[in-house]
Amino acid sequence: MLTGKEDLLQALIEAYLMEKGTKEFYSYAAEKAMSPEAKKVFTELSGWEEQHMGFIQFLYQSILDNRDIKTFEEFRSKADAPITESGIPVRELETRMEKHKFMDDKDALNLALEIEGKAYNLYRKLSKDAQDTNAKVIFKEMMEQEAKHIDYLKRLKTMLV
To answer: What is the pLDDT of residues 7-40, one digit of tens each?
Structure first.
């Protein structure tokens, strides 16, 4: 889990793994959700996390001037990502979903808002506490991306009411 004491490259790796864990959970949630709208929300969120992973991968490879996609793809496929960007373990979120026999749109949005809100708070804290100036910039950008997700989810929730 990120602390803010990592150097830039380690921070990028840790952020990548958390984004991967979140993407994996959202993909799982899309498969398990009962309503078509909940499936759609989780599928869209999974796609956003995939974009975050691509952004972090690009930054990492640019810093190392390493454009060897094959090596990073091997890392991507083998790297275990047990924690989401919210700090909640993927397995814990999956268990919570399994307890609900039916997840409607409202439940899906509430769960997504919880995850994205915690991710926002994590990146906000890291952007404030990071010792590496470049890592601060990356964490701030990730925080802003999470804020966009939260705004989107809140708009969806308002439309459902």
So the answer is: 778 888 888 898 999 999 999 888 888 778 888 8
What residue type is 141 in one-letter code?
E
Q: Are 63 and 9 in contact (CB under 8 A)?
A: yes
DSSP-derived 3-state class of residue 89: strand
d(CA 125, CA 102): 34
CA distances 11 to 32, 43, 60, 107, 127, Å, are 32, 26, 10, 32, 11
Domains located in the chain, CATH noted = 8-160 (1.20.1260.10)
Torsion of CA 93, 94, 100, 103, to 10 degrees: 80
Q: What is the pTM of this model?
A: 0.80
Tokens for 8, please give them: 């830039």
Closest CA to 96 of 118, 123, 114: 114
What distance in Å separates the CA atoms of residue 120 and residue 127, rounded to the nearest whole number? Answer: 10
Q: Is 86 helix (H, G, I), strand (E, B) or coil?
A: coil
Alpha-carbon distance 33 to 56, whole Å? 28
